[in-house]
TrEMBL record:
Coiled coil: none
Record-level Gene Ontology MF annotations: phenylacetyl-CoA 1,2-epoxidase activity
Gene Ontology BP terms: phenylacetate catabolic process
A GO cellular component annotation in the UniProt record: cytosol
InterPro entries tied to this protein: Aromatic_CoA_ox/epox (IPR052703), Ferritin-like (IPR012347), Ferritin-like_SF (IPR009078), PaaA (IPR011881), PaaA_PaaC (IPR007814)
Protein's name according to its UniProt entry: Phenylacetate-CoA oxygenase subunit PaaA
Highest rank taxon of the organism: Bacteria
Alphabetical list of Pfam families matching this protein: PaaA_PaaC
Length: 310
């Protein structure tokens, strides 16, 4: 890598050009993108588990159909993202191996259990709401395939967000038991949703380089602030109590949160959350159960090749 190559690359980013797969890029840019996009893909795939667990227990056919569509969308998002990472030279096998052996990270949020049906609504409203804030920013990322995947994913996430909000608002205004279920879900998901947007800026080693290269356009704390500013007033309007006694609005109109328990966050990231083990076991089981499909595809491909050679 010469200083001239780097300068030309950074000039393209300054001009708002997209970097495409065959273009010259610094090795560190490629590595950062593979890291981030593969973690993102794993998050989509593992993210199917907490919700998938409730498909058989949905309270109505209508809610079941929405949930099935949503979980299916997450699988599709995982596919786009693995493809985007493949354009940078990562292989599907390497990425899946890293996930299944526990070496790869995926979003902390999916290591929390879904204890009641209201959790499904709260995931839509808060988790997908946080994901949209982060991913709308990433739709402007400098790497073409990632930014384009984000545009499609965000429009699907918007439907997920709306269905979650509609559900929680209905329960918050429903019977006493429904209100209690909605409040309990908020009590358990509020803080993990804030943590999901990443460590505070002072503990975020990747942010400066990612911002310099136009991958992230905002810091973790900036995105977190946007998320709280949108969601806090809506949750309060729905009649729910946000479990943060220090939460207040400042003179600029920003909602300021109390201290986040970063010890809990890092414990979850390091694999010691409530559901880390169960999630990895479930992914490994699904992968093993799918072995016959991969074998059949390989056998088919081998036969096609040998017929072509005849
Ligand atoms: N869960 C698990 N690990 C996390 C989380 C999280 N919520 N937030 C940060 N980390 C990890 C980072 O991956 C990084 O680890 P690494 O260097 O070993 O890879 C470390 O903590 C330090 O964090 P940062 O320096 O702040 O990392 P970064 O600048 O990449 O910012 C962020 C983290 C905001 C998650 C970024 O990677 C991103 O925008 N990723 C794409 C979006 C995404 O993955 N969303 C997943 C959930 S959306 C959904 O599935 C519905």
């Amino acid at each position: 890598e010469t200083p001239e190559q780097l300068a030309a690359f950074e000039a393209r980013i300054q001009n708002g050009e997209k970097i495409e797969p065959g273009d010259w890029m610094p090795a560190a840019y490629r590595q950062q993108l593979i890291r981030m996009i593969s973690q993102h893909a794993h998050s989509e795939v593992v993210g199917m588990l907490p919700e998938g667990a409730w498909i058989t227990r949905a309270p109505s056919l209508h809610r079941k159909m929405i949930l099935i569509a949503k979980v299916q969308d997450e699988a599709g998002h995982g596919q786009y993202l693995y493809h985007a990472a493949e354009t940078l030279g990562a292989t599907r096998e390497q990425m899946l191996d890293a996930l299944l052996t526990g070496k790869a990270k995926y979003s902390s949020i999916f290591n929390y259990p879904t204890l009641t049906w209201a959790d499904i609504g709260m995931i839509g409203w808060l988790v997908d709401g946080a994901a949209i804030k982060n991913q709308t920013m990433l739709a402007g990322a400098s790497y073409g395939p990632y930014s384009r995947a984000m545009v499609r994913i965000c429009s699907e996430e918007t439907f997920h967000h709306k269905q979650g909000k509609e559900m929680v608002v209905a329960y918050a205004q429903g019977t006493p038991a429904q209100r209690e279920m909605a409040q309990d879900a908020l009590d358990r998901w509020w803080w993990p949703a804030l943590m999901m947007l990443g460590p505070s800026d002072k503990d975020s080693p990747n942010t400066p380089q990612l911002m310099r290269w136009g991958v992230k356009l905002k810091t973790n704390d900036e995105v977190r602030q946007e998320f709280i500013n949108e969601h806090a007033p809506e949750l309060i309007e729905a009649g729910l109590t946000i479990p943060d006694p220090l939460l207040h609005q400042d003179e600029q109109g920003n909602w300021i949160h109390g201290p986040i328990n970063w010890d809990e966050f890092w414990q979850v990231v390091k694999g010691h959350g409530q559901m880390n083990r169960a999630r990895l076991e479930a992914r490994n089981r699904a992968h093993d159960d799918g072995a016959w499909v991969r074998d059949a595809l390989n056998a088919y491909e081998t036969r096609q090749h040998s017929q072509a050679a005849d």
